[in-house]
Design brief:
The structure is a single chain. This protein has 531 residues and is an alpha/beta fold. Among the domains are: 51-179, Rossmann fold; 435-530, ANL, C-terminal domain (GMP Synthetase, Chain A, domain 3, 2-Layer Sandwich). The chain is 30% helix and 25% strand. The protein contains 15 helices and 27 strands. The strands form 6 sheets. It has an 8-stranded mixed β-sheet with strand order 7-6-5-3-4-8-9-19, with helices on both faces. Strands 12-13-14-15-16 form a 5-stranded mixed β-sheet.
Length: 531
């Protein structure tokens, strides 16, 4: 592999030097400590009618950390956060950081099957869940003797379940904090799909997550002022984009986090009209919904100073419509769970190229390589490789997959990209078969595994189909067993029982056989052409 020099990000980022981008080796928890000293009286969280100051947030966090310490929680223990965008998510997240616990992010909508897979791999000791999810948690609890305590964000408890609010109310605050080695200690395990369809946990250290917040802040420069912004956080906090760009950067900058538990268009628009947020990190589906909503110009979206889009490609026409509507600029970018997540974004200063993912963030090196690992010149298409302080430590309990993903210090993204002569990058395809639905990753192997369990299905293949609302939707081709008939309504219901809703195929097609090559490999490109 050829030597690679830093990409030309430096001249576009006013908060960086010409030679380096230094990241302090501190705990992620230090963000909250520092902000409380500067902006303690200011509002940290707005959730429905509740307003929580930074002083109150820190107090609740310290008390919950004290309660968990009294229950035996120790540095390195895993704690699952299976919560939506509610204040207790942020309180629990930072309480875990103070104790040196490793946070395992869990989508609350995961099915019992998906939850079991994560619990099996992560070996968690503690789990915080919403009341609506407790039934499935209790259904699997017996299979995990290492799960010591289950916590609920509800007001009423069940036998053996401890209420987070009660713990905070009754505990003494934890004054001391554990010692953190920022480059070695894992802060978060963020699950993504594996090459076999099984989930794998990206180990994100305190250093990784601190770095990505500082990189993102450097990107925005003086357009994001300390102690002045209101962030509309509608992306789920358990999603790596919402966690970093919504919550962690908000706390670092002393912003007010306007939490949205569920993205319901009318409700969100009324929140915008009332609170006038200045920063909106969104996914393409949200932007599409906004520009197509009747009377959208009446809700005050021109309060946005900064908008960013990630998790999936954003159609150019939607960019133009939204920017005309609001007067703000959408910064398209790119990231992955393995990179905390952001690696690229169009800079708010200098040249913006609509349709590109922009430039690498400060301190990030990238290159495009061919199948032999040789660096390709501008305009050539190859695999995108990334090196930077935000790149994960590796995959939890998966040394072989880690070695495949990180080689000679470079993270192999599996995405096909191109760089132009000015150092701007463009994603042109995926080497992986991953599908992105509304900003969430769907791995065909996982969906296919469920389909193969259906008693009437002989074979199945899953692909992504372009969709103007969600970016892509899931389509399944299924071959019935001999003498069997597939009822598509029943099949979809079967999938809903085993998969989170966004993973369930929206289209099914029954075919006699799947196309294969001479050695029996399924030719999905022919299915893509067939769609």
């Amino acid at each position: 592999m050829n030597e690679v020099h830093p990409q030309p990000w430096m001249k576009y980022y006013p908060d960086t030097t010409e030679t380096s981008f230094d990241i302090p080796e501190v705990s992620l928890f230090s963000f909250l400590e520092d902000t409380v000293e500067k902006y303690g009286q200011q509002t940290a969280i707005i959730y429905e009618e509740e307003h929580i100051s930074y002083n109150s947030l820190k107090s609740k966090t310290d008390r919950l950390a004290g309660a968990w310490r009294d229950l035996g929680a120790q540095k390195g223990n895993r704690i699952g956060l299976m919560l939506s965008n509610v204040p207790l998510y942020i309180i629990s997240y930072y309480a875990a950081l103070k104790l040196g616990l490793i946070i395992v992010q869990i989508n609350p909508q995961y099915t019992q099957r998906e939850l079991t897979e994560i619990l099996t791999d992560s070996d968690i000791s503690y789990l915080a869940a919403e009341p609506e999810q407790l039934e499935k948690v209790l259904n699997v609890e017996k299979d995990f003797p290492g799960l010591r305590y289950i916590f609920s964000s509800g007001q009423r408890g069940k036998e053996g379940i401890k209420l987070l609010d009660k713990l905070i109310e009754n505990a003494s605050p934890l004054v001391e904090k554990v010692s953190i080695k920022a480059k070695e200690d894992i802060a978060v395990i963020q699950y993504t799909g594996g090459t076999t369809g099984r989930k794998k946990g990206a180990m994100l250290t305190h250093f990784n997550l601190v770095a990505n917040v500082l990189q993102s802040k450097a990107l925005y420069g003086e357009k994001m002022l300390f102690g002045c912004e209101t962030i509309l956080t509608a992306i789920p906090l358990y999603h790596v984009f919402g966690m970093t760009v919504g919550m962690n950067m908000g706390i670092y900058t002393g912003a007010t986090n306007l939490l949205v538990k569920k993205f319901e268009t009318e409700k969100v628009l009324n929140l915008i009209k009332k609170h006038q947020p200045t920063f909106f990190p969104g996914v393409p589906k949200m932007y599409t919904v906004f520009v197509n909503y009747p009377g959208i110009e009446n809700y005050g979206l021109d309060s946005f100073k900064i908008c960013s889009s990630g998790s999936a490609p954003l159609p150019v026409e939607i960019i133009h419509q939204f920017e005309k509507l609001t007067g703000s600029t959408i910064g398209e970018g790119y990231g992955l769970s393995e990179t905390s997540p952001s690696t690229h974004r169009n800079p708010p200063y200098g040249i913006r190229k609509v349709g590109s993912i922009g430039l690498p963030l400060p301190g990030t090196d990238c290159q495009i390589v061919d199948d032999l690992g040789e660096t390709l010149p501008p305009k050539a298409i190859g695999e995108l490789l990334i090196n930077g302080p935000q790149v994960m430590l590796g995959y939890w309990n998966k040394p072989e997959e880690t070695m495949q993903a990180i080689r000679d210090g470079w993270f192999y993204t599996g995405d096909l990209a191109m760089m132009d002569e000015e150092g701007y990058f463009y994603i042109v395809g995926r080497k992986k078969e991953m599908i992105i639905v509304g900003g969430f990753n769907v791995y065909p192997q996982e969906v296919e595994g469920v389909l193969y369990e259906h008693p009437s299905i002989k074979e199945a293949a899953v692909i992504g189909v372009p969709d103007h609302k969600t970016g892509e939707l899931v389509k399944a081709f299924v071959v019935p067993k001999e003498g069997k008939t597939i009822n598509l309504k029943d099949l979809k219901e079967f999938c809903y029982q085993e998969l989170t809703r966004y993973k369930v195929p929206k289209e099914f097609e029954i075919i006699e056989e799947l196309p294969r090559n001479s050695v029996g490999k399924i030719l999905k490109r022919l299915l893509v052409e067939k769609k």
